[in-house]
Each structure stands twice: as structure tokens, then as C-alpha cells.
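Subject: for your reference before the review

Hello V.,

The reviewers asked for a structural picture of the protein, and I figured it would be easier to keep everything in one thread rather than splitting it across files. Below is the amino acid sequence we used in the manuscript, unchanged from the supplementary table.
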Amino acid sequence: MSTRAQTRFGASSLLLLAIAFVVAVIVSDHLFKGLRIDLTENRLYTLSDGTKAVVRRIDEPITLYFFFSDQATRSAPSIRDYATRVREMLEEFAVASRGKLHLRIVDPLPFSEEEDQAAQFGLQSVRFAATSAPIYMGLAGTNSVGDEEIIPVFYPDKETSLEYDIAKLVSTLAEPERNAVGLISGVPMAGQFDPRTRGMRPPWVVYQQVSQVFEIRELGTSVDVIPDDIGVLWIVQPKDLSESTQYAIDQFVMRGGKALVFVDPMAVIDTAVPAGMPQGMPPIGQSSDLPTLFKGWGIGFDAQEVVTDARLALQINAGPGNPPVRHYGILGITRNLLNAGDAVTAELGSLNTAMAGHLRALENSKASLKPLFSSSPASMTMPASRFAMLPDPTALQQGFTPGGEELVIAARIDGKLASAFADGKPETAPETKGDGESVEHLAESASPTNLIVVADVDMLSDQMWVQVQNFFGQTIADPFASNGAFVVNALENLAGSSDLISIRSRGSYSRPFTKVQELRVDAEARFLQTQQRLERELAETERRLGELQSAREDTGSLLLTDEQQAEIDRFIDQRASIRKELRAVQRGLDKDIEDLGTILKVINIGLVPLLLTVGTLIVIWRRRQTDDA
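And here is what came back from the structure prediction:
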């Protein structure tokens, strides 16, 4: 073949390859539209088994309306990309339902009937940074009996909870009747009147989320009989409950009732000025306990002990002009300390607690105590009184000695339990129920019990796990920890419905740099030792100066003696040296972290490509060896 013919053949081959590539792209775009390979941790972009179970339970048809302003977002590719993501997720739901879910895509143009329909459902247009005008991007659903549920707006920054939000809407429409949760709470979770603003405080976010899944019935803090139609009892911050109320709780559990209990050695969210304290004293957090019930059920809890942890301590603001400090009583429970074998905590991320207590099984207890989450081994307990008025959280570091044991903060209690009222029904308990039926005393549980006890109440408060923002009239709750998911998971698990647990748990998770945390803890320990040495030497110098002053004969003179001046000069030089040492400790911490970052960069940027190159060269060499043979 001539050179010209070879050139023409090569050019033709390239042209054919280019045409084939374009055709392949067009065909694949149509044939494999929406197809993707999910390489994310926890398979965030694949329908979970829980979602499949939810859509399989649909008996009557459900219609979903996805309202998206298609024409109004022509110049906003980022919004359109996320809208495509939402639409594809909805299509996957429809396919998995096998015809039970009907999806309709609606473009609500301004002043159109579709826009009126969106408004009738309660959807609102919102303005995103990438759009010049307000747009719709929400979901409405209806079932065969006329119930309606909506997701007002799909926010791109909440993509990881997309599947759960849709699954929860579908589940609510598929099963309109919700399980009843009886709430006994010593704190105003449902909101209360604020005398400063002369308005109502909104309910806690965790209360709102639970009310979306369950029917919450407020039982108050003085109840003689738990109604039979209560599926799960939710007890929060029980303080000084009457004997009859504790008996009602005991017998509810003995009858096979499930309970989720939150107690606390010092609840920051529930403050009051103790009786007998002078006026003007700042309020302190109150404790809560169920001593009679816990003792009878074999659960150990000391309402005077707070768990502190050097490794899990979170940073808090130390006031204007001061750098953040780590508070040994405010903990960020990492994923490795959650029970991966329990459905409630298996897929959760981090949990935040504040001044939490710890649980244990009492000797000769019939109960089986299974930890759900715990502290790290770098923890110890401190008296709750130490946290009453704590102006400087770094004071907790003084005398801190890790016990080397993980302290259980939350646990599942199961097994057959004996009644906490071994002597029978107390005199204050009613003889009959509200319907006239007599109340029979049960000396032991009729079936194996299932309780979840948590030694912290503050983890329920908004500031510990969620940021609440007002976005053009819409209240948006953006969680930075999994506290809310833990509560709803626990209630659903106790109520016997766990389909949504695996979906919700994928909503958010934390992957902290544990090595950096360990470096920081070690540096803080060295820093504290040096600081304490400086303070001791300062006290010794002041004592020495006082002795020199008292030994002087001219006590009325303001001038320093030569010996006093020499002592002061010596201390100034020594103080400068110690401060230099403190700075060296801090620089050493920064250098350790920077060195760790450099190693990771070398591995990611240099080592991995080098290994791939070496591997490729080895494969080429072996092929050549095979060809030569």
C-alpha cells in the first residue's frame, strides 16, 4: 500500500472512529439515561431496602406531583441538575412500586392553573442564588382517601436526605394512621410562652420531627394510668414524679409496653435557681432520675456524676475576643463508639451530648443492658456540682485522669423484669381505670421488655444538633449531628416499624480526623502541665516577695530592695522562658498536624499515581514477555 493510500486509510479510520464515538454517546445518553454507578460510602444514591419495603406496603394508588419551574431555570444549570437528580429518584420510587405510585411532572408557569395548583397544595416559590426570580421545586402527594403531604422545597445542600424525605412522605400517605406516643416531659418540648418576646417559642425540632411520624399525646407529669392505645412511652427529664405516676409507668412496662427514657445529672436546657440560694445567683441545670424504677429494674444511674472525655470534647466559644476552648463535658460521640449491631445506631453519624451521665447493670439484675453509644476510654466521671458555675471550661482539665473504660451513655434494656413495686400496688394508685375496669398488679413483665434509656436530655435541644434558619418564610432545619435521627429511630424501633431507620440514618454523618484529635489532646495535656508549672512558680515567687517585704525594717518605703528587685528580674526572665515553651508546645501541635497533612498529600498526589504507573509498566512488560515467548 502506497504512502498516500495509508494516509487516506488512517484519516478515514479516524473519521469513522469519531463518528462512532458521537453515535455511541447519543445512543448511551438515551439508553442509559439516569444510570449511574454508586461508589459513595453507604450507597447514598441507591434505593435502600427500607425504601423498597415502604413502597411494597402501598395498597391504594398514590399520586406524586413534582412541581419544577423548568422554563424559569434555563439559565441556572446547577438547579436544573439537582432537579434532574430529584426527578430520577422519584422515577426510581415509581418503578419500585410496580404501578402503585403515579408520578406527574408539572411546570408551574406564572399565572397558570399549574401555579394555582401548587399554591393549593401549600407549596411556595423560593429564590435560589442561581435564579433571577422565585421558582418552584417541591413535591406534593395524595392518596385515594384525599390525604395530602408535601415537601415544600428540595434544597440541593440536603441531597443526602433526599431519599428519606420522599420515603417518609410516601409512608405517611400509605399508612395515614400513625402510632401513638405518650409523652411525659419535665421540659417544654412542645413550646411555651416567652415573656421577653411576648410570643410562643416554637417546639423543639426533635418534637416536630417525631410528630411527623407519630401521634404525640401529652400525658403531663402526673398520670395515674397509661392508656392502652399508647404504643411507646417517651419520658424526658422526669423530676420528682409522684409514686402513682411511677407505678403507672412500671405497670405499663410490665404489660409489655415499650419506653424511651431520657434522664440527666445536669440538664443545661432545664435551669432553675435552687431553693435557698441568694437572689441574683445564676440558674443551674437540673437533674432528673427515676430511682425507684431504675433500682427495681436493675439499672444503675447516678444523678450526681457527669461523664467527661478528653478525646471527644467539643470546642465552645469562650466569649468575645477569646479563642474557642474544648469543654470536657460537651462531647461529640464518634461513629466508632456507636453500636453497629443495633438498628437504632447502626448507620448514624456523630451524636452530641452535654453533661451526660452513664448507665450500668446492677448486681443480680435480670435486665440485659446493651450499650447503644458510649464515651471513649479517655474519659472519667466528675461530680455534677463542679459544672454548676463553671466560668472557665479549661478548669476541667486540671486533675483529669482517664479511667481507660468506655462509659455507657445510652443503652437498650431487655429481658424479663420484676416490678419495681415488689410490695404490690401503692395506696396512692387508683383501683380502676377511667372506664371502670379494675387495675391488676403485675409482679413481673408479661413478656420480655424492650426499653431504651439515655443518660442525657440536652442532646434533644436544638443547639446540640441542628441549625434552624428562616428561608423566605420557610423554617429550614439543617442538622449537623444525628441526634434527631437517633430519637426517631429509637421510637420507630420500639414501635415495631424499622423501615425508615436505614434511610434516615443515611441523611448525615461525620468523619472526623481522629488522628488530629489525638494529637490535639496530647498537646493540650503538655500545655496544661506547663501552664500549671508556671502558676506554681508564680505563686512561689509572690510568696518569696511577701517574705522579703515582711522582713524589711523600712516597711513604709515603696522602693524595692536589691534582693526584691533581683527576685522580680529572675521571675520575669523565667516567665519569658516558660511562655516560650508554651508557644513551642502549640507550634509543635501545628507542626504535627501539618506533617500529617503533608504525608497524606504525598500519598494522594505522588504515591498513588506512582503505584498505578508501576503496575501499568509491569503489565506491559509481562505482555511483551508472553509475546516473545
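For the response letter, the relevant points are probably these. Residues 507-511 have pLDDT under 50 and may be disordered. Residues 1-33 form one domain.

Happy to draft the paragraph if you're swamped.

O.
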